[in-house]
């Protein structure tokens, strides 16, 4: 719908459905002393660990794979169960024995998963961890295995295998009810299946435990935009951009949303500002070209279009059904491609 409205990282072979945030959990390599949780930045969150410590998850911005045209919507009418992130259940990782050889081995395997050469190899590592440790009776089992399920869900999301990813996120949430990461990532899976209301509930649960989470606000904007509530979506994108000024996709989503609700002048200003900061931001460049064309500024539109280096923006089906731009902007770009003028919006 909007410039990468939900994000999955490392998808060179995929283009964003929306700018999404997936979250990942990791363990970082450090001296073996204490194990504490860590998560990278995300629109998708990934779980990682180290033979030293787990850090409280950070976020990583990722692009959701272009799966819009190949997903089955089977089951999309079944409402998701309410979710509450139970932070009070967070395990005391200082009680983990850093000398436990199995824990050290699991941490090193998680590092292998994060450093995998490709997404298939990465998925294989998460599966190996799950199969090896899921039946262990240790203080850390649910923590480690829950992270592995969440990360495998991310790998499957990036391959467009959304139903399988959803099953992994469900298991991650069952094992680690204290973690917001698989909840946020499950929201992304629901979005890919067109279950926008269910997705919104996941993001609201994430925000309930951390109102300063830009990924949660950005993705909440994605879900309500999916339901056609663009004015509400713009407020959420603005909140995400305010919380994380460097989160360019949230600002891009806000700009495209502003254009959709008729705030053309402000939208054009935001698009230009983003392109000054990020000159190679192709989605914004194409969006600006479309908006200028609709304003009758044909020469300026052509000038911007010359710098769009992604041929997929010429594909109407991709633009509407995979990229999922806001309707008004999609119409403007299609008119540009057809060399057809369109009436200005009052």
TrEMBL record:
Domain of life according to the entry: Eukaryota
Leader sequence residues: none
Gene3D superfamilies tied to this protein: Tetratricopeptide repeat domain
Key words, A-Z: Repeat, TPR repeat
Coiled coil segments of this chain: none
Origin organism lineage: Eukaryota, Viridiplantae, Chlorophyta, core chlorophytes, Chlorophyceae
Family matches, as PANTHER family: PTHR44858:SF17, TETRATRICOPEPTIDE REPEAT PROTEIN 6
TPR repeat positions: 146-179, 180-213, 214-247
InterPro entries recorded: TPR-like_helical_dom_sf (IPR011990), TPR_2 (IPR013105), TPR_rpt (IPR019734), Ycf3 (IPR050498)
Protein name, entry field: Peroxin-5
């Amino acid at each position: 719908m909007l410039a990468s409205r939900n994000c999955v990282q490392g998808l060179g072979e995929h283009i964003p459905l929306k700018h999404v945030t997936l979250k990942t959990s990791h363990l970082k390599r450090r001296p073996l002393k204490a194990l504490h949780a860590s998560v990278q930045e995300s629109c998708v969150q990934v779980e990682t660990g180290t033979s030293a410590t787990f850090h409280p998850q950070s976020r990583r911005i990722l692009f959701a794979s272009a799966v819009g045209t190949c997903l089955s919507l089977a089951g999309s009418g079944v409402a998701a169960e309410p979710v509450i992130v139970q932070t009070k259940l967070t395990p005391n990782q200082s009680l983990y024995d850093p000398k436990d050889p199995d824990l050290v081995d699991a941490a090193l395997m998680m590092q292998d998963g994060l450093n995998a050469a490709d997404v298939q190899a990465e998925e294989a590592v998460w599966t190996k961890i799950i199969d090896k440790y899921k039946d262990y009776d240790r203080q850390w089992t649910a923590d480690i295995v829950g992270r592995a399920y969440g990360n495998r869900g991310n790998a499957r999301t990036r391959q467009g295998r959304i139903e399988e990813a959803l099953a992994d996120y469900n298991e991650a949430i069952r094992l680690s009810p204290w973690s917001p990461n698989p909840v946020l990532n499950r929201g992304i899976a629901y979005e890919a299946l067109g279950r926008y209301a269910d997705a919104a509930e996941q993001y609201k649960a994430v925000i309930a435990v951390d109102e300063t989470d830009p990924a949660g606000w950005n993705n909440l904007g994605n879900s309500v935009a999916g339901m056609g509530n663009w004015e509400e979506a713009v407020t959420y994108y603005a909140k995400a951009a305010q919380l994380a000024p460097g989160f360019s996709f949230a600002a891009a989503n806000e700009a495209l949303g502003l254009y959709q609700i008729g705030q053309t002048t402000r939208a054009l200003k935001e698009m230009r500002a983003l392109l000054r900061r990020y000159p190679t931001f192709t989605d914004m460049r194409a969006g600006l070209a479309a908006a200028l064309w609709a304003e009758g500024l044909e020469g300026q539109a052509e000038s911007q279009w010359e710098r769009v280096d992604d041929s997929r923006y010429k594909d109407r089906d991709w633009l509407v059904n995979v990229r999922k731009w806001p309707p008004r902007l999609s119409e403007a770009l299609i008119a540009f491609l057809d060399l057809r003028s369109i009436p200005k919006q009052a």
